[in-house]
Amino acid sequence: MLAQGDTATALVAGLVAYYHQCRFGHVEAGLRTGDKFRPFPEEMNRKLADTVADALFVPTPRARDWLLREGCDAGRIHLTGNTVIDALLEIAARPFEWEKSRLASLANGARLVLITAHRRESFGRPLWEMCEAIRELAAGYRQAGVQFVYPVHLNPRVKQPVHERLMGLENVTLVEPLDYVSMVHLMKRASVILTDSGGIQEEAPSFGVPVLILRDTTERPEGVEAGVARLVGTRRQRIVAETRRVLNASLRPPIAPHRTSPYGDGRAAARIVSVLLQSGARHSG
Questions:
Q1: Of residues 38, 62, 76, 120, which has the active-site annotation?
Q2: Does residue 31 belong to any structural domain of this protein?
Q3: Is 283 known to be catalytic?
Q4: Lowest mean pLDDT among 14-18, 31-35, 109-113
Q5: For residues 63 and 219, what is the distance between their CA atoms, to the nearest angstrom?
Q6: Does the annotation count 20 as an active-site position?
Q7: Which of 69, 184, 230, 256 is deepest in the core (most CB within 10 A)?
Q8: Domain contains 176
Q9: Co-location of 211 and 240 in the same domain
Q10: Which domain holds residue 69?
Q11: pLDDT at position 145, please?
Q12: What is the model's pLDDT at position 60?
């Protein structure tokens, strides 16, 4: 059995495989912040899934090092990159008809700021601060033709405060969650992305799009170290200042563009299949 990521589903899949004494492979293994409550509950979901896994498919050398420090057998660890990048590159290569999509209103070539925020630790005051930052930025860049686009999570603890603070602003577009194809092409078009998502931190560097991470910690520090992402926290003032730095940059962007993604090259799935076939041959023998 294979499971990817750090959702409750991935953890339960690992436990079911364990109870049935079925070999289990965890894709995207080894991600850590070192704080079991940030992100909550993902940090413990992935750590426990790694514990029962027979094969650990890690996206980066840092993830491999985390597992080795935790005492994992090196023979169980396979450095593959992340299959997220495989999917991203395949989708990004497809043609996309903006005028026929749900994003037709954004087909006019305006500069786009993409926002996603939905994590549990963002509920309450942090999300309020994010919304206030977006209000301030939208007002400041209204005349500059910058459009702010926010696919809003359906959780009431996200949807209600976001709609209360941002609904009706002239250059803020609130949309329901998007299909993956639309989201990929929206990321590709963005000038900067504000996000508390883990996956987008991996995806955006493949397009050279700067990412401002609306969190205090990240399990994906490789992007920060490579200069394609920056941790900015959840305070309004810092979010506004860092977003302005990116939007106002001309000759020397404060976040490096067009770097190769540190999270994969698009061939992770092939590497995982190769490991599985070799493992299957050994067990059948």
A1: 120
A2: yes
A3: no
A4: 109-113
A5: 9
A6: no
A7: 184
A8: yes
A9: yes
A10: 2-82+265-284
A11: 86
A12: 94
Q: Quickly count: other Cβ atoms within 10 Å of residue 197's Cβ.
A: 18
For residue 195, give the nearest of 145, 233, 166 by alpha carbon: 233
Segment 59-83, tens digit of pLDDT: 999 999 999 999 999 999 999 999 9
Within this chain, do residues 176 and 111 fall inside the same structural domain, yes or no? Answer: yes
The CATH number of whichever domain residue 207 belongs to comes to 3.40.50.2000
**Same domain for 190 and 96:** yes
How far is 176 from 59, CA to CA, in rounded Å? Answer: 30
Answer whether residue 252 shows pLDDT above 60.
Answer: no
Mean pLDDT in residue range 113-139: 93
Total domains, the chain: 2
Among residues of the chain, what percentage have pLDDT more than 90? 69
Q: Is 185 a catalytic residue?
A: no
Does residue 108 sit in the same domain as residue 70?
Answer: no
DSSP state of 32: -
Catalytic residue among 26, 32, 64, 118: 118
Task: Tell which residue, 200, 199, 233, 201, has the closest CA to residue 216.
Answer: 233
Does the pLDDT value for residue 102 go beyond 80? no
Residue 197 lies in a domain: yes
Q: How far apart are CA 106 and CA 254, in angstroms?
A: 26
User: Quick check: is 118 catalytic?
Assistant: yes
Residue 78's nearest CA partner among 242, 268, 213 is 268
Q: What is the pLDDT of residue 231?
A: 94
Task: Given the residues 26, 32, 42, 189, select the one marked as catalytic.
Answer: 42
Residue 232 banded pLDDT, cuts 50, 70, 90: very high
In a domain, 253, yes or no: no
Q: Are 31 and 217 in contact (CB under 8 A)?
A: no
Which of 153, 157, 244, 259 is labelled catalytic? Answer: 153
The Cα–Cα gap between 88 and 34 comes to 28
Q: Is residue 42 annotated as a catalytic residue, yes or no?
A: yes
Q: Are residues 127 and 57 in the same domain?
A: no
